[in-house]
Amino acid sequence: MDWDQASLAKYNKMLNLIPVFHRRIAKEVVNKKAEQNAQSRASNQVQEQDIVQAFTSEVPKAFYSLMIRIMDEVGFDYKKYGK
Predict the structure, then answer these.
(1) CA 38 to CA 50: how far, in whole Å?
(2) Cα(40)–Cα(66) distance, rounded to whole angstroms?
(3) Residue pair 78/50 in contact by the 8 Å Cβ criterion
(4) Which residues contact 62 (CB under 8 A, 6 or more apart)?
(5) Does this model's pTM top 0.85?
(6) Per-residue b/e over 19-36, b at no fewer than 16 CB within 10 Å?
(7) Cβ atoms within 10 A of the Cβ of 83, count?
(8) Cα 72 to the chain's mean position, in Å?
(9) Which tens digits make up the pLDDT trace of 23-75?
(10) What was the pLDDT predicted at 82?
C-alpha cells in the first residue's frame, strides 16, 4: 500500500526515537494497523490519521506518555484524531 510521503517521514522519525528494543515490534504492529485503518476508510494510501490511530490503539498503555511525547516531537497532530 502507498503511504503519504510527509506522514511516512514523520513515522520513520518517530520510529527512530522509540527505544531500540521496542522498535521492530512497534513497526510491525503499527504498519499493519495503519494499513488496515486506511483500508477501512476505503483509501489506497496510508495517511497521518491512520498512523496516529494505529499507535494509539496498538501501543500498550504503559508507553502512552512516551508515545505522546514522541508524536509531539515529530509533529503528529494526535489531538486532531481524537486522542
Answers:
(1) 6
(2) 27
(3) no
(4) none
(5) yes
(6) eeeeeeebeeebbebbbe
(7) 14
(8) 12
(9) 999 999 999 999 999 999 999 999 999 999 999 999 888 888 999 999 999 99
(10) 63
Q: Classify residue 53 by its DSSP letter.
A: H
| Nearest-angstrom CA–CA distance, 73 and 71 | 5
**What grid cell was written down for 29?**
504492529
Q: Domain residues of the chain, as ranges? A: 2-81
Residue corresponding to grid cell 503528529 = 76
Question: Which residue from 71, 39, 73, 33 is spatially nearest to 53, judged by alpha carbons?
Answer: 33
| C-alpha grid cell, residue 7 | 506522514
Distance from the Cα of residue 59 to its chain's centroid = 9
Vertex 24, ends 31 and 22: CA angle to 5°? 115
**Going by DSSP bridges, is the β-strand pair 45-46/2-3 parallel, antiparallel, or unpaired?**
parallel
